[in-house]
Design a protein that fits this description.
Elements (H helix, E strand, L loop, with lengths): L4 E6 L13 H18 L4 H6 L2 E12 L8 E10 L4 E10 L4 E13 L4 E2 L3 H8 L9
Antiparallel strand pairs: 1-3, 2-5, 3-4, 4-5, 5-6
Amino acid sequence: MSEPFSVRVTVRGYETDTQGHVNQAVYVNYAEHARWSLLTAAGITQARLLGHGVGPVALETTIRYRRELLAGDEIDITCVFEWDGGKTFRILQEIRRTDGTVAAEITAVAGLLDLAERRLVADPGGVFKHLAAEPALFGW
């Protein structure tokens, strides 16, 4: 894909803290929203994942705050999955104002949990590829 998957959100007033900028925990919600939006666009719903006995799990999240976001700002949240062939994968995300200013960079390490075994599946990329109606959204 030439452009990463992206979803647009308007910052809501209740997401801000006493300084008037977006509360730190909200960035994680924005990232998660974009991830689930990508899964949905690819044809993978929570029900479909559960039907196959798997669920995504976050193992690590790193956020680098670059510029503040304020109530009313329109932002684009990108989402790119990186596969290395192991049990985990990385999700690279940026939160940008519509003028192109990067507000945050988020890197996550995730896996796909076998819900019966309670262990990470050996090939999460293969499972996503199998379940996806639009696998190109994952970079294939």
